[in-house]
Hints:
Strands 1, 2, 3, 4, 5, 6 and 7 form a 7-stranded parallel sheet that branches. The protein has one domain (20-290): Alpha-Beta Barrel (TIM Barrel), CATH 3.20.20.370. By secondary structure, the protein is of the alpha/beta class. 49% of the residues lie in helices and 11% in strands. The termini are far apart. It binds zinc ion.
Amino acid sequence: MNLTRRHALFLAATPLLAQKRPRLAITMDDVRWPGVPGDRLLAHLGKTRAFLFAIGEAVDNPEGARILETWSAAGHRIGNHTWSHKPLFSSADPAAFEAEILRTEALLTRHSGFRKVFRFPALKEGQTREVRDRLRHFLKTHGYRNGAVTLDASDWFYDQQLRARLKADPAFDVTRFRQPYLDHIFDRARYYDQLSRDVFGRSVAHTLLVHYNLLNSLFLGDILAMFRARGWDIIDADDAFADPVFERQPDTAPAGESLLWALAKETGKFERRLRYPGEDDTYEKPVLEKLGLL
Length: 294
Ligand SMILES: [Zn+2]
């Protein structure tokens, strides 16, 4: 290849190079705190500002209030994740679901980190267009944004299995879960980031979904270090949610999953790459089974 041609190729690639490094923010759900060394979670985040989506009934107690106060004081944001965490399946009553959002808001609003950002339990946003649009209208009327996830995963399942192992054997070597968990998260990151590039021609600012759990109290720091080592930037959750992709309201039913999953689904062009649900324990069981961790 001669120099002129190489130069031309470089120029052609320049607009892509400008945003070549993928960006990722941490969003952490539920705040079911018993048995979780929460201060370690906070320490893992360092200077990164995360979004904590709290279940009302999980934090309606002195320790829950202390956690939200501590996280607020450290500059993290607090979002609404319903009162009881019942997902919006077809059996759910939309009016009761809305009442839960308001009940949780009344509890969270006293914390300085609280912002009107709502995350749907299990990322289920309505099984029908009617329920989906009702909730979209409700959230808008009450000043809420959807705290959507672009990078979905099943950390909750790895946590569940880790705790089961510890219960059966208190001497169990927890570090056996480290690499499988890191591999799972990076595998999903590669998948959703490629989907972003293929649907939009760019890498959106990602929001990673993880949970307030034992697994992350052990390995969240390793997750962040892994992303940085592989050329990703870790950004504040507020900055990620400023990406225009979070204004999008895909026309899919059932509604929900990763926002990128739904936007890809809406195009009708990516069927072979879209499993449903997007993430679930059924995909992870064979992986942990093979490693002797199930
Ligand atoms: Zn949740």
